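Sample intake sheet
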Amino acid sequence: MIKEYQNPLLGRKEVEFEVTHVKASSPTRFEVKEKLSQMLNVKPESIYIIKMETKTNSWRTLGTAHIYNSEERAKLLLPKHIILRNLPKEEREKLKEKKSS
């Protein structure tokens, strides 16, 4: 973890993190969410990964995550594509099926 700070106005904690993955592929959003939830003692559902970036030929991933106090607050403030990106794969597929039918 690089930086961590509270944003009481928006009801969230903002975290900048670094993941080192030597001789392994870049971690998935869900792996990062699980690790962050363990480190910060929060539920994985309240964590939204905003950005993850791995530089070419690097074993370091830098990213930003927001930890919201409530799911309603997250839905109010975050763009829909970020919320969808943080859903489990099964839920995203269900939503796609509903839209296509």
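Comment: The beta strands are 3-7, 12-20, 47-54, 60-68. The two ends are 43 Å apart (CA to CA).
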